[in-house]
Amino acid sequence: MDSFNLTPDACKDFNPTFEKDKPCLSYIPYKELTQCGYCTRPDYYRCVADNLPIPLSHSSMGDWLTCHRLYWLKNYMGIRIKDACVSNAIKDGSLWDTCLQGLSTTVDIPGLIVRLEIPGREVAKVKALWNAFKEFGLEPSPGYDAQARIDISFPTCNNGQVYIKGFYDRKYPTFFEEDKLSSRPDHYLDTYFIHSQCGTYFLADPSLEYCTMKVVRVPDLKSTGKNKDEDDEAYYRRCYEDVISRPSHYFIGYDRAKHTYGRKFYRSEFNLDEIRNRYEIAAIEIQQARDWQREGLDGYYRDDKACQQIWGPCDLLPICRTGGLSERFIIRQDKGGR
Ligand code: SF4
Ligand code: SF4
Fold first, then answer.
1. 281 in a domain, yes or no?
2. What is the span of the domain harbouring residue 19?
3. Does residue 1 register a pLDDT over 70?
């Protein structure tokens, strides 16, 4: 692919430049013109007139499987909840991931706490885990590539191309490690539920033999009785004492002698043919939905059954209810992607 591939009628704001290297005034091409470009306008994210595909990821595949409207809103329109408005569970997870990333690169933890407006009580929980993590010497073994990229593609049966992108938390030559912080660790220890993510990561590199899910439980101590008026510092101390006193409850698979935790899953436990097939079919369906939309049909239709999910209501429910963007939401402006 080496030329632009836009359908001007697909965008009411298409603004021709009559220049060979810029089909629309607002268009930002994706490098090498193999994938859908972006739009400079603040009210768009991806160029909706572009006929090239958006790369899939484990996460965007989840959007598509959950609800076609969800996929459209997040991946074409770039709609996100503002950092400060995400759930405490997401804030805790971001803080934990950032602490771990700090083992191999420079991170700004105070800046993250301010940007995400993480409540002091949530900071206390993660800080307790982090200090216990260091106390027990649970740092990962050296020799890994942090945030190693996944970037694969393969043809579809209809002469298209599937692109899959993503990042490993830590990639070693023959295995990878994924970090999870959760109030429900069992979810990440069930092959059925980690099939999509881990399977994608195995699919991306045939030399990977196994993965270790490094699952950590979020403290859930209540401030009742004599603790009902405790401040964040007192809450932190209680959480820390609890983590220190029963590490295997918090660091799943904790091994005191080896200074490790986590649970191994082997490549053979994942049906990679099924995962590859699902990506291929989803890529075709997404292109088909886009074509229907251009013919005036609701290709990215709402799936009302998916609005109430196992973790709570869909993040974008206010948008689907009202049809408008409230102050809780933003349109991504990181045009060009990661
Ligand atoms: S989405 Fe933006 S770049 Fe694409 S045609 Fe419309 S205005 Fe132009
Ligand atoms: S609120 Fe429901 S219909 Fe709307 S994007 Fe979420 S799951 Fe889909």
1. no
2. 8-82+296-331
3. no
Q: Are residues 106 and 240 in the same domain?
A: yes
Q: Is 49 in the pocket of ligand 1 (CB under 6 A)?
A: yes
- Six-digit token string for 280: 């291929």
Residue whose CA is closest, atom 3 of ligand 2?
Answer: 302
Is 204 inside a domain boundary? yes
Number of domains into which the chain is organized: 2
Residue with tokens 């660790």: 185
Ligand index nearest the alpha carbon of residue 308: 2
- The answer to whether residue 303 is domain-embedded is yes
Per-residue pLDDT reduced to its tens digit, 179-189: 999 999 999 99
Q: Based on the fold, state whether residues 131 and 46 are members of the same structural domain.
A: no
Give, for ligand 2, the residue of 317, 325, 326 to mutate: max count of ligand atoms closer than 8 Å to Cβ. Answer: 317
Residues 105 and 232 both lie in one domain? yes
Strand partners, 217: 182
Write out residues with Cβ below 6 Å of ligand 2: 67, 69-70, 73, 302-304, 306-307, 314, 316-317, 320
| pLDDT at 338 > cutoff 50 | no
Residue 31 pLDDT exceeds 80: no
Indicate whether 159 belongs to any domain: yes
Alpha helix ranges (H) inside 117-157:
120-135
Nearest CA to ligand 1 atom 3: 27
Sequential DSSP letters for 273-302? HHHHHHHHHHHHHHHHHHHHHHTTS-TT--
Dihedral sign for Cα 91, 118, 169, 257, please: negative
Q: Which of 11, 38, 72 is the best mutation target for the ligand 1 pocket, counting ligand atoms within 8 Å of the beta carbon and taking the most?
A: 11
Q: Do 127 and 264 share a domain, yes or no? A: yes
Confidence class of residue 4 from pLDDT cuts 50, 70 and 90?
Answer: confident
Task: Give dist(CA 177, CA 179) in Å, integer.
Answer: 7
Is the domain of 255 the same as that of 228? yes
